[in-house]
Amino acid sequence: MIDRRKEIGHPVQCGELLPDVKEIDSIFPATAQLNELFDVEPSLIAGRNSTVKIVSPGGRGYMLDFASYSLDRRKFDKHLVKLAEEAGARLCNDVSLLSVKDGIARTSIGDIKAKVVVGADGPNSLTAREAGLDRPRLRYPAITGRAEGQFDDCVEMFFGSVAPGGYAWIIPKDTGANVGLGFSRKSCRERPSEAFERFKKMIGARTSSTSLGFVPMSGPVKSTVAENIVLVGDAAGQAMPSNGGGIPTAMIAGREAGRVIRGYLAKDCKLTDYERRWRSLIGEPLKNSLRTRRLADVFFPSNVLLGLTMAILGTRGLDRAIRCRPLFL
Ligand SMILES: Cc1cc2nc3c(=O)[nH]c(=O)nc-3n(C[C@H](O)[C@H](O)[C@H](O)COP(=O)(O)OP(=O)(O)OC[C@H]3O[C@@H](n4cnc5c(N)ncnc54)[C@H](O)[C@@H]3O)c2cc1C
């Protein structure tokens, strides 16, 4: 594995919310053996929450039961590397991919010849570009920071002009909270840092460090395999477009990629099987999630319309939305 970061997991470009494994199971019912994948040890957990409060533009709160962890993502990513290393992988950090040609990855420390190249290099994936594969069409800027102080013990998501086309969040930890927001460039020309300052003023929070990233919001790309290259996670657009969450999906698809590659190297299956297999596990909820985001786009431009739509959906409809289910049965 190569990664251009000097330190894995840092800076944290994430809200650090990981749904409890039971919630992941209910969102992605076609998946199996989730316990082994999401067996998060206590040292990686910075807080637990059992509810989500969705706040409409007018300030009305809808309380949903939804169990989640606030991860310590800086430690969590290092933990995943440790698991990979224990299984025989090797990581070279501070190394950049420069191009991929004929199965050879050109990197800042020289060429690496690979039987299979896995592009898990995020929403601006160079691997995808080099393979001639599409990259996620919509990438929303999202900014996050660590706030000190005491917060209510539920996850809060704020909708409306506070984060046009997206939402702002407070994800409490045992001490402090991860606060941030992501929005659509189509709906807002403001700089993410300006929108973030406004939000922090609104909730009375001060952050010690902030970082900016991009969330793929257009759903999975058309094709995630080309020759000996496979795409995983944000590079494949596997984040949930209605809420931007991408940790569970990247891990589920990543494990499936590993299984297919093992089979492919043993000549038991084709690399293209990955395409069918990850879609059969998480494809349907991601489609529902994309439909919800597209529908929301219609109402997002108006605080009044958005508030009205949220009132019509009510707690049950909003619960379906965050669980990537069809909004209307
Ligand atoms: C602000 C923000 C908040 C978020 N909040 C949440 C949340 O609360 N919960 C959730 O589930 N999801 C959240 N997400 C989404 C989540 O972070 C991603 O879906 C998840 O990290 C996907 O992992 P990934 O491995 O595909 O990509 P990434 O985590 O982006 O990892 C890509 C890696 O590739 C490396 N890389 C990229 N290009 C190169 C190159 N050319 N050479 C070498 N290395 C390279 C990068 O250094 C990076 O380490 C959030 C995203 C953002 C931006």
Topology diagram in text:
Elements: E1 2-3, E2 17-19, H1 21-27, H2 34-37, E3 45-55, E4 61-71, H3 73-86, E5 92-93, E6 97-101, E7 104-107, E8 110-113, E9 117-119, H4 126-131, E10 139-147, E11 155-158, E12 167-172, E13 177-182, H5 192-203, E14 207-216, E15 225-226, E16 229-231, H6 247-265, H7 273-299, H8 303-322
Parallel strand pairs: 1-5, 3-11, 9-16
Antiparallel strand pairs: 2-4, 3-4, 6-7, 7-8, 10-13, 10-14, 11-12, 12-13, 15-16
Helix pairs in contact: 6-7, 7-8
Bound molecules: flavin-adenine dinucleotide.
Residues 2-5, 13-17, 96-97, 120-122, 126, 142, 144, 180, 213-215, 233-235, 239, 244-247, 250 line the site of flavin-adenine dinucleotide (FAD).
How does CATH name the architecture?
A: 3-Layer(bba) Sandwich
The secondary structure category is alpha+beta
Record the strand order, biggest sheet: 2-4-3-11-12-13-10-14
CATH class: Alpha Beta
Number of strands: 16
The name CATH uses for the topology is FAD/NAD(P)-binding domain
Q: What is the percentage of strand-forming residues?
A: 25-35%
The overall pLDDT, averaged over residues, is 95
CATH superfamily: FAD/NAD(P)-binding domain
Low-confidence stretches: none
> Termini separation (Å)?
44 Å
Q: Please state the overall shape, judged from the principal axes of the Cα atoms.
A: globular
